[in-house]
Design a protein that fits this description.
The protein is mainly α. It has helices spanning 2-22, 24-50, 55-79, 89-110. 17% of the residues are buried.
């Protein structure tokens, strides 16, 4: 039950903390290509959840959807040319981590 609330959010934090800091220049190059799988994740996970009859499976697929939103926010922030123009990255990452916190609490209580 705690798995979707805590452990699935750790991969988003791990991507932010390690992957983006270690490979900053590579992420800027391949960032637009990395956004495509997350958009597909946002589109297809709710469709898979809609087809489910079991409530736990439905919530699990919707958790995948929310992780797609978080990862899309992180990679769109780092791959965007607007970042160089002075967008507030702290505010954008605060929004991503607020989504992680909110979904972690609600998913754990739903299970």
């Amino acid at each position: 039950m705690v798995l979707t609330g805590v452990l699935s959010k750790m991969d988003v934090y791990g991507f932010r903390r390690f992957f983006l800091l270690l490979f900053t220049k590579k992420v800027k190059v391949i960032g637009p290509e990395l956004i495509v799988p997350f958009v597909c994740q946002i589109v297809f996970a709710p469709l898979a959840a809609w087809a489910q009859r079991d409530l736990k499976r439905m919530i699990a697929y919707l958790s995948i959807n929310h992780l797609g939103y978080c990862m899309l926010g992180i990679f769109a922030l780092t791959a965007s040319p607007v970042v160089a123009a002075g967008i507030d990255t702290h505010a954008a990452l605060s929004g991503v981590f607020m989504q992680i916190l909110n979904h972690g609490i609600t998913a754990a209580t739903l299970f």
